[in-house]
Structures are given as structure tokens and as C-alpha cells.
Amino acid sequence: MSSPPPCPACASTLTYEDGLGNYVCPECAHEWPIKAEAATEEAVRVWRDAAGKLLQDGDAVTVIKDLKLKGGGGVVKQGTRVKNIRLVDGDHDIDCKIDGFGAMSLKSEFVRKI
Ligand SMILES: [Zn+2]
């Protein structure tokens, strides 16, 4: 958790959270919602591969470890190339299609950008 931002009204840095979803400035009594800032952070989310490189929609990646599929669906082997990924929100944050397997979801931490 980062420290509260300075007051947008008087630039005081003595701001604090009131525990009710707002920041409060003790110097000028200005209050503003914490949520607005959280939403901004969400909008600039970035996806990175296992090596920390930025991923973008349409990138091609390789799988860096064998990935067992649920339900006995086989194993996506290390080194499998995946073209045209699509970045999504969620635990498995990459949507893609893999030859021989069809549509599936991967985790960005298990791929590397080609
Ligand atoms: Zn203030």
C-alpha cells in the first residue's frame, strides 16, 4: 500500500485515509474518494512475460515450461509457439489458440516474447 497522495486542494502531505474509502486532508478538510485513483491504476495495467518484457495484443510467444491441461487434455510442451495472443484480465491473463489444442488461457509468467 502506497502512502496517500498530497491534497489536490492545498498540496498538504499530511493526508490520511479515513477508513471509509476516502482520503482526508487535515489542513483544509478536503475529502476525496480513494476509488478514483484505483480505477486509474487499473487502466494502465501492463502485461509482462517471464523475462519482464512488455506483452501486447497480437504478440507471438513461446511457452517456457510444460503446462498440463486440466481434465487430462494433454500437455502444452515447453517451447511451443503461440501466435497472436490476446491479453485479458484475470488469473490466466492471456487468451490464445494453440495448434492441436484450440482456444485456451495461459499465464503471462509462463511465456516469453519471441
Ligand atoms: Zn488540503
UniProtKB/TrEMBL annotation:
The lineage of its organism: Bacteria, Pseudomonadati, Pseudomonadota, Betaproteobacteria, Burkholderiales. Residues 5-33 form the Protein YjdM N-terminal domain. It comes from Massilia varians. Belongs to the YjdM family. Residues 48-113 form the Protein YjdM C-terminal domain. InterPro entries: YjdM (IPR004624), YjdM_C (IPR013988), YjdM_N (IPR013987). SUPFAM superfamilies: Prokaryotic SH3-related domain, Zinc beta-ribbon. This is Alkylphosphonate utilization operon protein PhnA. The gene is phnA.
